[in-house]
């Protein structure tokens, strides 16, 4: 019988910010959405103050100032990089791994003798190597592992680690009876409300429900949830997460932007990030969307939302090709005299690499470009996301080093990489 563990980062976005600000340990932190409009993450200290999630920031601004809450604008590039690092560490502790979300990962722990000691050392390893506190829930099914994670997080006595096997059947029932049915994985608000009309209010109630009646009233997914709550594993680990059919890269500006050059730099950056995600899942996109918008909360300003989709001649995952298309879209939707708050890039019509039918009358992409992209991804994977990036407006056919540190040359044993640019033959990398 498999044994699952769900490991997730506590208050992940807030913990990512705190990892680089040790002075904020023990202090309240709030992270806001892209446009700083609402709360998307809170530290445990902020939750203790009564700050709710997904509320408009203006409603809690005074409370944050009164209690000295540190407020951050969201930084999804940072969170994505921290997530990648955390998942690598967690994966080294499991037999198999499924990355479920940016801060959650399922692993299997079959054959581990002392689970509590193992999970405790896992948490300590992630905290030491990444700086993110985690919680570990263990169970014979994925649903029970996720519910155990909920227990480990909500009940202080669990100290961040909990397994259903540590309780007698009587105490398991008592604990299940204290968990609302809406906290069970896969039970949304509407399903919880309908279950409530059937007298099912807790996880224990759902565990004891008739699976056939549940399937008749709902669907096979909820029926499987009942089975999983009873220790019958219906959900195996997904070895490979399904490829995304849409990739979005966008972010709000700290200050309003009016000039097209600054917008173009942001669009170029977002295009490169989106293209990198495409290559990670070995896909290509046929459509590139570009968008800009003003701040909807500044009613005194002129409001405008620009959106356009630019088709590519050939599906591509090349950063330069996608950036050129995104910039062409930007220039088509840009309006002078307007202050912009946000810009972004969206890739659609995504498919596997090399399987799209090519245009017989258009020149084929240079096959060497894939090698150039591979070198760039290798540099960024080794030295941090954004270390090697598109050179920006007026230089999209080149790259610049943004990490501020010398990098060893990949092609000789003693050189230090000082610049990268495209030449007629591909990528020119200069070392000293």
UniProtKB/TrEMBL annotation:
<dbReference type="Pfam" id="PF11799">
    <property type="entry name" value="IMS_C"/>
</dbReference>
<comment type="similarity">
    <text>Belongs to the DNA polymerase type-Y family.</text>
</comment>
<dbReference type="Pfam" id="PF00817">
    <property type="entry name" value="IMS"/>
</dbReference>
<dbReference type="InterPro" id="IPR043502">
    <property type="entry name" value="DNA/RNA_pol_sf"/>
</dbReference>
<dbReference type="InterPro" id="IPR017961">
    <property type="entry name" value="DNA_pol_Y-fam_little_finger"/>
</dbReference>
<dbReference type="InterPro" id="IPR001126">
    <property type="entry name" value="UmuC"/>
</dbReference>
<feature type="domain" description="UmuC">
    <location>
        <begin position="4"/>
        <end position="188"/>
    </location>
</feature>
<dbReference type="InterPro" id="IPR050116">
    <property type="entry name" value="DNA_polymerase-Y"/>
</dbReference>
<dbReference type="InterPro" id="IPR043128">
    <property type="entry name" value="Rev_trsase/Diguanyl_cyclase"/>
</dbReference>
<protein>
    <submittedName>
        <fullName>Y-family DNA polymerase</fullName>
    </submittedName>
</protein>
């Amino acid at each position: 019988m498999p044994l699952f563990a769900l490991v997730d980062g506590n208050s992940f976005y807030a913990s990512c910010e705190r990892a680089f600000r040790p002075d904020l340990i023990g202090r309240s932190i709030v992270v806001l959405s892209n446009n700083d409009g609402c709360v998307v993450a809170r530290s445990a200290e902020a939750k203790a103050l009564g700050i709710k999630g997904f509320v408009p920031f203006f409603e809690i601004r005074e409370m944050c100032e009164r209690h000295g809450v540190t407020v951050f604008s969201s930084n999804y590039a940072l969170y994505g990089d921290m997530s990648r690092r955390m998942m690598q560490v967690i994966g080294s502790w499991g037999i198999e791994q499924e990355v479920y979300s940016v801060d959650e990962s399922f692993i299997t722990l079959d054959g581990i003798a002392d689970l509590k000691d193992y999970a405790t050392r896992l948490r300590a390893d992630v905290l030491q190597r990444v700086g993110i506190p985690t919680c570990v829930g263990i169970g014979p099914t994925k649903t029970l592992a996720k519910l155990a994670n909920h227990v480990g997080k909500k009940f202080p006595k669990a100290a961040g680690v909990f397994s259903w096997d540590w309780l007698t059947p009587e105490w398991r029932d008592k604990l299940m009876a204290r968990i609302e049915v809406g906290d069970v994985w896969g039970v949304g608000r509407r399903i919880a409300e309908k279950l409530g009309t059937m007298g099912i209010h807790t996880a224990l109630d759902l565990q004891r429900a008739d699976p056939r009646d549940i399937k008749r009233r709902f669907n096979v997914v909820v029926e499987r949830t009942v089975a999983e709550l009873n220790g019958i594993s219906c959900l195996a680990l997904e070895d490979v997460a399904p490829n995304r059919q849409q990739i979005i890269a966008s972010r709000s500006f700290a200050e309003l932007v009016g000039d097209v050059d600054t917008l173009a730099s942001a669009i170029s950056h977002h295009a490169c990030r989106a293209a990198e995600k495409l290559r990670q899942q070995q896909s290509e996109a046929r459509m590139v969307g570009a968008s800009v918008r003003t701040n909807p909360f500044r009613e005194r300003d002129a409001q405008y939302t620009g959106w356009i989709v630019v088709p590519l001649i050939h599906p591509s995952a090349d950063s330069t090709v996608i950036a050129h298309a995104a910039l062409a879209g930007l220039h088509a939707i840009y309006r002078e005299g307007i202050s912009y708050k946000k810009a972004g890039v969206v890739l659609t019509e995504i498919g596997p690499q090399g399987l799209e039918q090519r245009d017989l009358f258009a020149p084929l992409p240079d096959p060497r470009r894939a090698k150039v992209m591979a070198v760039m991804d290798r540099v960024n994977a080794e030295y941090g996301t954004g270390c090697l990036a598109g050179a920006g407006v007026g230089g999209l056919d080149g790259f610049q080093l943004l990490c501020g540190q010398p990098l060893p040359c990949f092609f000789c044993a003693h050189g230090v990489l000082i610049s990268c640019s495209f030449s007629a033959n591909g990528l020119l990398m200069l070392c000293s």
